[in-house]
Design brief:
The chain is mainly β. The chain contains two helices and 16 strands. It starts with a helix and ends with a strand.
Length: 235
């Protein structure tokens, strides 16, 4: 009995250090997503995914003197780009949700058009949709046309020490695949930061091998999708 109590106390102490240096139990393991409604006390049948979507956690280190953008692609994907003050045309992805190659972006026509390059090669162009929202940061706003419509917004990553990547699309659920920056809000709880309502999620550590993921939004533009808890389980 004494050994069991000691293990529980040790895990509790480790969790209190998540926002500092002890991230290995998260970042050095493989995780997957499954239906989490029963863990949240919702008496509904469990939906089994044919292939459980994969999740990874990584330490987040924002480069000094840089600006961070959150991007949403249509209603399907979230990801982040950072821009250094001394490299105004270079935008570097965080994580791998939308590739890992830096983008070189050049603006023209009074910041109403842009051209993108990767490794010096043409990667595509886009026109602004609507008015320019921020003259200091011309990337902010909506660009392109369907089905390649992107929206870029500034985001403050203060207090974020980790990011989470949902690698695969989650069937039925409204929670999107992509990259999420997360900050610790309690001894065993985290929340994502997001410029978009549908990017806001709560993560609650229930046990050392399972995390409850709860949407902090109540509705979505795609009403067919479920806005309901998920479980992130360590493989």
């Amino acid at each position: 009995m004494k050994k069991i109590i000691f293990i529980i106390m040790l895990f509790s102490v480790s969790l209190s250090l998540l926002a500092e240096e002890n991230h290995k139990w998260l970042t050095e393991n493989n995780w997957c997503i499954e239906d989490g409604r029963s863990l949240a006390g919702l008496s509904m049948g469990t939906i089994d995914f044919h292939s459980n979507p994969r999740v990874i956690f990584r330490v987040f280190e924002k480069p000094p003197r840089s600006v961070l953008y959150q991007v949403q692609l249509r209603n399907e994907l979230f990801y982040f780009l950072y821009q250094k003050e001394d490299e105004q045309q270079k935008f570097v992805p965080i994580g791998s949700a939308y590739g890992t190659d830096p983008l070189e972006i050049e603006f023209s026509n009074n910041n109403s058009s842009m051209t993108r390059k990767v490794d010096g090669y043409y990667y595509g162009s886009a026109d602004r949709v609507g008015k320019q929202q921020n003259h200091n940061y011309p990337l902010v706003g909506i660009w392109g046309r369907l089905p390649f419509l992107n929206e870029y917004q500034l985001v403050d990553p203060a207090a974020c020490v980790l990011y989470m990547e949902i690698i695969d699309e989650i069937p039925v659920w409204a929670v999107r695949k992509g990259t999420y920056l997360i900050k610790q809000t309690g001894e065993k709880t985290f929340e994502t930061i997001s410029s978009y309502p549908e990017g806001r999620l709560k993560l609650e550590v229930l046990r050392e091998n399972i995390i409850l993921l709860t949407p902090l939004f109540s509705s979505t533009r795609n009403e067919v999708k479920l806005v309901a808890p998920l479980a992130i389980r360590r493989n």
